[in-house]
Write a structure and sequence with these properties.
21 helices, elongated, two-stranded antiparallel ribbon, 553 residues, alpha/beta
Length: 553
Amino acid sequence: MRLPAARQPSARPPAVRYPVARYPVVRRPVVRCPEPVAVALCVLVPVLVMLGIGLWGLDRGGMWRDEAVTFQVARRSVPQIWHLLHTVDAVHGLYYLLMHAVLAQHPGEIALRLPSVCGAAATAGLVAALGVRLGRPRVGLWAGLLYAVTPMTGHFAQEGRSYALVAAGAAGTTLLLVLAARSAGPGPWCAYAVTAAATCLLHEMALLLLLAHATTLALARVPARVWRAWLLAAAAVALVLAPLALVSHGQSAQVAWLPRTGIGSVKRLLGQFTGPARLVIVPYLVLVALAFRPEPTPRGTLSLPSVALPLVAVPPAVLLTVSHWRPLYDERYVLFALAGAPLLAAAGADHLARRLPRLLPHAVTTGVLAVTLVLAVQLPLLREDRSPDRRPDNLAAVSAVARGELRPGDAVLFLPSLARRAALAYPQGFRGIRDIALSVPASASGTLYGREADPRELRRRLDRLDRVWLVAAPFATRRTWRPGETTERLKLAVIDEQFEPLEQVVSRGVTLRLYVRRPTYIPAPRTGPPRPVPPSAGRAGPGALGSPPGPPR
């Protein structure tokens, strides 16, 4: 029996193990490029949701006063628009020119509001893109969806004004800032400057966006080269905006109606940014607080909180503070700052999902369901917002009332002149009437509502009348109203002195009164035989004289 051959020893000597000192292992975060399809879906889904909400009930059946201004100004010729901007509304000049091109083909309420719907949808997509860039795809998805279902967003998505487009420009400018800060070339900074300038030209209050971006760069501690590039871009924007700022400063009387701000303004804006329901506000604020987790960020890196917090806080804080002494604040002016709120809430939700992976195994689906719940809670408010009654007035309803009362040839006196806006927006109800006070039409006069006759000429015209319809704004029928214009004071004086009310129709946004000459009043001598006072046409509506009368004006 043969024994197995002995195993030959290895020629390689055994390895000698030396003791190794245990140093802390620094684990660098692995940055994975997200799948292009996932990124595209996370951006596209909020866009589609915002489009659906914006298009829902877009044709409300009536414009309110600010939309009517857009509608009637945008349908003027370009020289007439340019003429108008020298006297009023210079701050909306670029928007009017844009809407001139839009309404040239299909003038109507849907075309009037469609650019705002597209602007809101673009903003939702840009917010999602910011979330993807600064966080991860699910952060972008949640932030974009949360922006889309916010009632404030849905409200201005259906306004025929510039604010939704300004919000889109601000979100795009912020995304370009993030890209430019990480780039060594001048191309992104040029795009940033052009987009910021266009946004500020749409509405000059968007200039506050630059203060937010300066705060972002300070929080991120960016290097000097980034500061130099940003300062150059900001200076270019300021240079472009300077002529508009000078002209609009001379038209500051347009915002004289704005009240001073206080703590109530802050509370109201908070409810607008998150949604007014308490079931939404409290979780929203908790998620925002979770976004500020104590994790170190490399110097010069623009993190999501450093971008979103200045965006949502700096413009409103500056405008609210200034407006406590010199009123300039309105919620619509800071709509563009809303984009920062859903980004912070989505970042907080992402932090929560990473800390509780067992409780939230399907984080993306859970987040989408949570946003769906927010939409369900706020759906009644969104539904109510589709009604014309949610706006300060409805000029289509005013025109319908006028159509039922006025007849071709009737003399009409608008009090004050801005009450003429219903006739400019919906002329069907005022077709064939005689506008007693009008001297030069609105489009030819370079004004919003036309130039009226001087007091002497207006008195001469009124002396020839035996009956006149007064179309008055609601505030003009109050005894406490004291107009500053001489022509408006003359209208009140002549009506009170020479006429007495016969019929009255009161509707939301307008009061129509038929006045006939007092039998005891003897007007100044005039040529031709006196005109007899015709009997009442018998078209008294709700609130007619014979029912409890209103103020005798």
